[in-house]
């Protein structure tokens, strides 16, 4: 939301384009992880006649899904950095706390995903980071006043 009504023809505008593109890549590739590792591999393992030799977490589709998820997670980190670059000229240091928490959560997300216990802390970190980022951009927006 802090990137709505952009880009401008400057560094912040370029960073906004990178942020939106990276967010799209995150959404596409992380959804690919869910589809391939979750749906396809689960279906393949569920219909395999010899699941003991494959093992539920050793199916090749899990590796493919994990690769897609890694690309998505890296894209999320790029989106966070680009968002901070885009917002910093207008909002200054107020975007730094949320950005730092989002970067730590993004790094943790690389291998924790949503799994207990670290993944849950990672998701809470994302919630806190996004809340702080939104709060850091709220105060200096020009809002039309009713008279």
Query: How large is the share of residues in beta strands?
Result: under 5%
The biggest beta sheet is recorded as: none
Structural class: mainly alpha
Number of beta strands: 0
| Helix coverage percent | over 70%
Number of helices: 5
The sequence of SSEs as H and E is HHHHH
Distance between the termini: 26 Å
Averaged pLDDT, please? Answer: 84
How many whole angstroms does the radius of gyration measure? Answer: 19 Å
Low-pLDDT stretches: 141-145
The dominant shape is: elongated
Write structural notes for this entry.
With 147 residues, this protein is mainly alpha-helical. It is built from five helices and no strands. α3 packs antiparallel against α4. It starts with 10 loop residues before the first helix and ends in a 9-residue tail after the last helix.
Quick overview of this protein structure:
By secondary structure, the protein is mainly α. The protein is built from 5 helices and no strands.
